[in-house]
Specification:
The chain is built from 20 helices and three strands. By secondary structure, the chain is mainly alpha-helical.
Length: about 375
């Protein structure tokens, strides 16, 4: 059963975060509130709920898992170093007292002092050295290739993380890279074994398959997969938003996308998903010829997503999608300077993904090259 990260205040006003086991986010929030918590915030969507395994919770607390999604690699390393020092603080305090005490009484520096200083620096050295062998670092590199459509490099780098990535996730990463290289038949063969796997939720399979077709630039197939995902999980916020965005991206179909977003609003929305819901609502407003409303919504989305920029290299691609639609909204509202600014930010990503339709749409209202 999935696990969802949820925080709230108890009757003493203290904020608590837990990983709540429940069939869906709404039920997880209901169970958490039933224990007397208020100001409840959902921090993970259905996809993360499926991926959050008990093994991870044994190594890190829910609060640490939540915080790590907001930190860069260097910030993560700093947090780990602090964690080690706090855990054995009395030993390090004793080492500091030893060195200071010997200085106070005038004892010459010798091997004992050097040993104490080395001991003080040991946690930092271990964390920094461990970073070079950390599978998360290698995985981030793979996701960076993914985020910039560098499919050949992604495919070559994937074997280095195979042992650390669940089979389903690995297969879809591999399929996405193959599809991006134009090898769609091979891509589909990679993920076919999971189509009827009872351990894989149908909505998750179709949602991941939509990503595969997206990298192959087969928009209509992306929409078909999104529709299958919604059929299998009509109360799943993630798949509702994904289908809505596909309809807006490939068909500019606000009439179909809007009800999906309204339906999503009837369920619990995680703080990691909220920015993308706002962005989709902004894209709907743009297609409905309401550029000022669109701009406001997408600006809110960018503000909300800022704290997640370090969660994954893929977040950068999502942020640049927001920049693209914000450029279009600014252009439609008559603010050409802002439109050019946001288009220049998004343009490298659009070119990397060969998003010709979006590039041409932006250039039609902004000017070629955003100049």
């Amino acid at each position: 059963m999935p696990r969802y990260l949820i925080s709230g205040k108890n009757d003493r006003g203290q904020t608590t975060m837990e990983a709540v086991k429940a069939p869906n986010p709404d039920e997880a929030v209901r169970r958490f509130k039933a224990r007397g918590f208020i100001d409840v915030v959902l921090h993970s969507d259905e996809v993360l709920g499926q991926m959050l395994q008990p093994e991870a919770l044994k190594r890190l607390s829910p609060g640490e898992l939540h915080a790590l999604g907001r930190l860069s690699r260097w910030q993560t390393m700093g947090r780990m170093i602090v964690r080690v020092y706090r855990k054995q603080w009395w030993l390090f305090a004793a080492a500091i007292a030893l060195v200071l005490g010997r200085r106070i009484i005038g004892v010459p520096w010798n091997f004992l002092d050097t040993l104490a200083i080395a001991f003080l620096g040991l946690p930092a050295a271990i964390v920094v050295m461990g970073e070079f062998f950390n599978p998360a670092r290698k995985y981030d590199r793979v996701m960076t290739y993914n985020a910039w459509a560098r499919w050949a490099e992604m495919l070559a780098a994937l074997p280095s993380v195979r042992w650390a990535v669940p089979a389903l996730q690995y297969a879809f990463h591999e399929a996405k890279a193959l599809a991006g290289l134009g090898r769609i038949d091979e891509a589909l063969d990679r993920v076919k074994p999971f189509a009827d796997d009872p351990r894989t939720p149908a909505w998750l399979y179709w949602g991941q398959l939509a990503d595969v077709y997206s990298s192959a630039q087969l928009g209509e197939r992306v929409i078909e997969c999104g529709e299958k995902a919604v059929e299998n999980a009509p109360n799943n916020v993630t798949v509702l938003i994904d289908l809505a965005m596909s309809l807006l991206r490939y068909r500019r179909d606000a009439a179909r996308a809007k009800p999906l977003l309204e339906q999503a609003r009837t369920y619990e929305i995680s703080d990691v998903i909220l920015p993308f819901l706002l962005m989709c609502e902004g894209a709907v407003a743009l297609e409905e010829k309401k550029p000022d409303q669109a701009r406001k919504l997408i600006e809110c989305a960018l503000l909300a997503v800022e704290k997640y920029r370090h969660a994954s290299p893929l977040m950068g691609a999502g942020v640049d999608r927001m920049h693209t639609y914000l450029a279009l909204a600014c252009a439609a509202s008559g603010d050409s300077l802002a439109a050019k600014k946001y288009y220049r930010i998004a343009e490298p990503r659009l070119k990397a993904f060969d998003a010709t339709d979006l590039i041409e749409r932006c250039q039609a209202v902004i000017g070629r090259g955003g100049n």
